[in-house]
Amino acid sequence: MKMLSYWKAILTVINCGIIVVHAADFDDLFQASWAPDHIVVQGAQIALSLDSSTGCVCMQMASEGPNRDELDFEFLGNVSGEPYVVQTNLYVNGTGNREQRHYLWFDPTKDFHTYSFFWNKRAILFLVDDIPIREFPNKEKKGVAYPRSQAMGVHGSLWNADDWATQGGRVKTNWSHSPFVVEFQSLEIDACQLSPDGADDPVVKCGKSGQFWWDKPVVKEVNKQRKRQLKWIRDNFLIYDYCQDVARFTEGMLRECLQR
Ligand SMILES: *[C@@H]1O[C@H](CO)[C@@H](O)[C@H](O)[C@H]1NC(C)=O
Ligand SMILES: *[C@@H]1O[C@H](CO)[C@@H](O)[C@H](O)[C@H]1NC(C)=O
Ligand SMILES: *[C@@H]1O[C@H](CO)[C@@H](O)[C@H](O)[C@H]1NC(C)=O
Known about the structure:
binds 2-acetamido-2-deoxy-beta-D-glucopyranose; globular; Jelly Rolls
């Protein structure tokens, strides 16, 4: 059994409507919030090693506090030779439970790839190598919560999730494969930047319509292409969608699932 022992990724966070950027420097963007002695920063590269183990490598964009907004990419480990799964999730105002799981069309431990979030007022896209794997359209008009007013920062982490991530917790971490390492190659953020002291009001500074290129209407052709790609992904790589999980949401599906 082999867990995610070595993983590489290019993190590109683009086109975000609102994001907190404390510095333009990669080293400063990536700050160890725990175990700083396990983080190695070399120029534009960062390596995170853990002497215990991992079931999950995560990269997320999130605001702070219990009512946070959050967008997640999570890479779930597996038995040697079995496919890694990418789980995406989305929290709005503190509520998540919006998991989707996909296989990838490549082995994510073999090479760097680009994982990105596109976030504007109309929709959120999760992209892998510029191919959208998931879309969360803004349906606020129909009463669906949408992250719009909270600033988000970028975080990366590596942790042991063998109680749930690895084939639903059946496969346990093999500690003899440690240390586990995650390597980020680069990070790009194109966003409306707020001052780190929290003095800016995100809605006042970043909320004006048509202020940024990511808010401009997309050409029809791009939209069509995106729909085709999303369908290709859904037909070939989707393995779990919370909107289909009737057994789990016995009290009723989340609102956006009823709006398709
Ligand atoms: C853990 O990995 C080691 C080294 O590859 C291997 O010898 C051992 O059998 C593995 N243990 C389990 C429980 O799979
Ligand atoms: C967010 O959730 C809190 C309760 O946790 C609620 O009081 C507040 O109105 C919610 N905000 C929005 C924008 O829905
Ligand atoms: C692990 O491999 C099994 C068997 O191929 C597969 O069914 C599963 O989706 C993979 N991923 C996870 C996270 O369990």
